[in-house]
Every structure is written in structure tokens, then in C-alpha cells.
Amino acid sequence: MDIEYGEHVAAGFAAGDEDCVAVVYRRWRPLVHALARRSLGDEREAEDVTQQVFLAAWHGRSGYRPGPGGLGAWLTGITRHKVADALAARTRRARAAEAAVRLSAQARPDPVPGPERAVERVVVLEELARLPSAQQRVLRLAFYADLTQSQIADRTGLPLGTVKSHMRRALRLLRQSLEPGLPQRLPQALPRPTR
What we know:
The chain is an all-alpha fold. It contains nine helices and no strands. Helix 2 packs antiparallel against helix 3 (about 45-60). The protein is elongated, with a radius of gyration of 22 Å. It starts with a helix and ends in a 6-residue tail after the last helix.
């Protein structure tokens, strides 16, 4: 790509020209994806990050200013930020999983389930039924089918990032709706959604 053509495409991209956006995507997607895959070591996460980079570039295109390295350097910078976000989210998920394992190891089942537990279960099921169907489906697959987020993405055909978003929103909604009305031990058993 010669410099003049590259500058024309970058200016068109910044202006929102759809043809230029398509050229930028075709030209820079392989680099962005390779950087994400190398940093994350996971193909599916690299795909999610690649999508996030181009979405962020599209939303922030008015802030693009040509500089050394041009559009490629700008996209590489966005990629670094999105990879850092993905790694931070991975760390939060690992910590949450470790905390859940510790909590479950410490939890002692009630010798005889009392009426309190039955009421709590009914309230939780009612709140689950109020969630949007996509969020319900993800939570049911996670908790009842014991599937990981990657397995849920494979089974449903949803992108992994979408599965994670549904899970996070659903848990946040459940926590908000359950905390005021249930005894203290149940809300503490619900994991805090990652941000």
C-alpha cells in the first residue's frame, strides 16, 4: 500500500467511509489478531479481542490523528489495551473460581434441609425466571449443566465475549434482586460479577 493511498484510506476511515473501513479491516485484521493470539495464547479470546479492537477503533475514529506508524500503530496501541483488559479479566475469573472452590470446600450442607432453604430456592428460581432468556440460558448451562463459559459458547454458537457478558449481567441482576430479601448467607454464596 503506497503512502498516499494509505493516507487516503486512513482519512476515509476517520470520516466513517464504509469502503475505507473495509479496507482497514482487511489490511490490519491479521496483525491485530496475531498480536492478540500471541499475547493471550487462546484462539477464541484472540478473536474476541480482535472484534473489540475494531469496534473501539470505529467508535474512536474521530480521535485518530496521523502520526508515526500511521493507522497500524494506532490499531496496535488499541490492541495492547484490549489484550491487557482481557488478561485482567482472566485473572479476575481465576480468582473468582479459586474463591468459589474455597467457599464450597468450607460449606457444610445442612443436615436436614429446613423450610428456610426451600423458600430460598423458590425465591432464587423466581428471580432466575425474570432474567432475559439469553442470560437465563447461559446461567442454566453454567450451573445446572456445569459447563464452562467456553463450552457454553461452543454449545450455543455465541461468541465467548457474549457468553461472559450475559453471565456477568445475569449475576449482577440476581445479586441486586436477591440481596435485600434473603438471609445473609445466600447472597454471599452468589459470586460477584467481574467487571
